[in-house]
Design goal:
The complex is a heterodimer of chains A (199) and B (128).
Chain A: H1 10-19, H2 23-45, H3 48-64, H4 75-97, H5 102-105, H6 125-144, H7 147-158, H8 163-170, H9 174-191, H10 193-198
Chain B: H1 17-23, H2 35-55, H3 60-89, H4 100-127
The chains are: A mainly alpha (199), B mainly alpha (128).
């Protein structure tokens, strides 16, 4: 794959500055991507405290790998590949130590799960309760997906990655990624059919 | 990163536009406000052991290598001194002069034996 021109990807340009020892460029990257990375890890791991730790480690890894960084792909692809690998490591660690299962770590109550951003528009309690119920179901539905499908949905729907970029993160072909996403959509539609009818 | 719900669905999601919209209702989780500071702290902590090791002096391997080199140097010097002694100082010792003094030494020894014999003879004289 031809290298990505840093000018075409401002984040790759920032990363090249980090490689040259520019600490302020690293701070900018952390500031810019802390929410997307935290979100992805949080939805994948399902535990906010562990997600915070892993998300921090993602940036530590970014900093430590800066010397070897080559802009062969978009920076976000590289960033989320690191994030996914650290999440997979966490799953392996859990498996080894027979800690809580993934099912147990996901909370069925979204209010006790990852911190939600405050809703800027105050709504009536009934509407708010209905929204909470919907969010709970969405989280539960995403939780039920196998890891590759979950990653594909999270990166495609919430982080705005293209199919090509998601494919790179998953280490799969674009055709395989489309198939993964198709299966994920079928599962999500089944899980959320009640809400799909209502809207 | 743009807002979750604002993203456009890929073209092949046309049939699943509703699903796309519903998924967008899940609001993003928010990292703690001191997240960047925590990353910086963690980075400093992870760099610390490396720095401490570097400032704590040479490790066992480098000490071993230095000692080996020092030992090799000392041994080489000793050999050099021994060689100098062998070829320069000891060259002038009597028994290295073409065997001449070696003969003298033998004669000396023989004389010594002779003297002892003479002594015995003298004693014999006395006895007689």
């Amino acid at each position: 794959m031809p290298p990505v021109e840093p000018s075409a990807d401002p984040n790759a340009e920032l990363m090249l500055r980090v490689r040259q020892g520019d600490e302020s460029a690293f701070d900018l990257l952390v500031e810019k991507f802390k929410t997307p990375v935290f979100n992805y890890v949080c939805r994948t791991i399902g535990n906010e405290d562990e997600a915070e730790d892993i998300a921090q480690n993602v940036f530590i890894q970014v900093y430590k790998s800066a010397e070897r960084y080559e802009p062969t792909a978009k920076f976000t692809t590289w960033l989320f590949t690191i994030a996914r690998n650290l999440c997979l490591n966490e799953f392996r660690r859990r498996k080894r130590h027979s800690l809580q299962s993934l099912d147990e770590t996901f909370s069925s109550d979204p209010e006790s799960g990852p911190t939600q951003l405050a809703d800027p528009s105050a709504r009536p309690p009934a509407v708010e309760a209905s929204e909470r119920e919907l969010r709970r179901h969405i989280l539960a539905a995403i939780e039920k997906l196998p890891e590759d499908q979950r990653t594909a949905v999270l990166l495609c729907r919430y982080e705005g990655l293209s199919y090509e970029e998601v494919a790179r993160v998953l280490g799969a072909s674009v055709a395989a990624t489309k198939s993964i996403l198709h299966r994920a959509r079928q599962t999500l539609k089944e899980e959320l059919h009640k809400f799909l009818r209502e809207t | 990163m743009e807002d979750f719900a604002m993203k456009h669905a890929p073209s092949d999601w046309n049939d699943d536009q509703k699903l796309w919209e519903i998924l967008g209702r899940l609001r993003p989780a928010s990292p703690p406000s001191n997240f960047a500071w925590l990353v910086r702290q963690k980075l400093v902590e992870s760099e610390k052991p490396r720095r401490e090791t570097a400032s704590a002096g040479p490790d066992a391997i480098s000490v071993f290598r230095r000692r080996t080199w020092a030992l090799a140097t000392v041994t080489a010097c000793l050999f050099l001194v021994a060689a100098i002694l062998q070829f320069q100082v000891l060259e002038h010792r009597p028994f290295h002069a073409n065997g001449k003094m070696t003969v003298e030494t033998i004669q000396l020894a023989q004389n010594f034996e002779l003297l002892q014999d003479i002594e015995v003879i003298e004693h014999l004289d006395e006895l007689m």
